[in-house]
Amino acid sequence: MLAALANVLRVPELRRRVIFTLVMFAVFRLGTHIPVPGVNAAMIEQLFNNGNLFGLLDLFSGGALSKFSIFAMSITPYINASIILQLLKVVIPTLEEWSKEGQEGYKKINKVTRYLTVVLAAVQGFGMAFGLRSAINNPNVFSVLMIVVSLTAGTCLLMWIGEEITQKGIGNGISLIIFAGIVSRLPDGISTLAKYLNVGTINILNVILFLLIALAMVVFVVAISQGVRKIPVQYSKRIVGRKMYGGHSSYIPLKVNQAGVIPIIFASSLLMLPATIGQFVKVPWVQKIAGYFAWGTPLQTALYIILIIFFTFFYTAVTLDIKNMSENIKKMGGFIPGLRPGKPTTDYLDNVMTRITLSGAIFLALIAMMPHIIVYLTGIEGIYIGGTSLLIVVGVALDTMKQIESLALVRHYQGFMK
């Protein structure tokens, strides 16, 4: 890894890619400080101390939502559009056909994703403007329209920045924008920790325990994120013309955490919705229901774990087509040793994937519960580590380092001819 970083400084093309990525990060962070016109940002900032859905969105935006800047919605509409289209592949044959057309199909899906992002951004922007109308200085149609246009334009700019980073920089641009937003909150966490130490709320032993738990969590997340179950596949020999093909062995890598961070995002968004609604609807029975779903209550914690496990199985089943995988193995003349091609192979892969998915679901539930465990063990509150943020940061860092290593290897590979 260190050698790959040293290569980045030596290879001009890689150096240009890194510099371009850092410049785009600077543009992103600059945009988080440009406020949306006609809004009282001080009133909005008070909404982010109650553990509601806005707090989760503010985490992804790097604090842009609490400041209500032009990047307040971050890249969330683009992510939602991508997830919606990915789920719609199961029910819309055209999208499934596009996904099998290679690069041309990818361009078509990406074009639809952009249009859907604009629609979702406009709808979300209108919802935010309507929900936060008490913080608008002059609440009228023109002010709401100005807010919607500003927020939608900010999301479109971030979408463009992400695509530019993917093409001209290093790593996946959309993921890196979320990564930069989460990492930018790190100085605030360190400042909070220092304040706790100064006022005597915690001692140095609490800080050491906190850091040890954080390090153990990072190691655990890296191990599970990289963990795969290798299913051996043997390909039989076949003669095409005068040439012989096949006769080699390979394997199918089934990831332990196939669903990634999506189940935690779905579960968090769903359970934070009642508390968010209760903050705006001042009706006694609504307030009572919102109290049951407050963050950390027994009901909320139990439902959180159940929903994470459910969404892990659901998202894995939608995104990973076991039957199609089995058919592809059969078409290529392959078979799993000891199993006949066809239904026996499909059933075996399905059983293996079910067990692996259960392990991944338990892992995600444990990671999601870590903030509660950390508060219980160390007494340190107000510093969010674990769950969504940790999975995203570690996952994006690993993927980016892999791309850096692959680019460095390509640039230094001499081959047979010079």
UniProtKB/TrEMBL annotation:
A GO biological process held by the record: protein targeting
Family under the similarity heading: Belongs to the SecY/SEC61-alpha family.
Record keyword Iron present: no
Protein name as annotated: Protein translocase subunit SecY
Complexes and interactors: Component of the Sec protein translocase complex. Heterotrimer consisting of SecY, SecE and SecG subunits. The heterotrimers can form oligomers, although 1 heterotrimer is thought to be able to translocate proteins. Interacts with the ribosome. Interacts with SecDF, and other proteins may be involved. Interacts with SecA.
UniProt xrefs under Gene3D superfamilies: SecY subunit domain
Coiled coil regions, renumbered to chain: none
TM stretches of this protein: 18-36, 115-136, 142-162, 169-187, 207-228, 259-281, 301-322, 356-377, 383-401
Subcellular location as annotated: Cell membrane; Membrane
PANTHER family, per database record: SECY/SEC61-ALPHA FAMILY MEMBER
Source species, domain of life: Bacteria
InterPro entries linked to this entry: SecY (IPR026593), SecY/SEC61-alpha (IPR002208), SecY_CS (IPR030659), SecY_dom_sf (IPR023201)
PROSITE patterns: SECY_1 (PS00755), SECY_2 (PS00756)
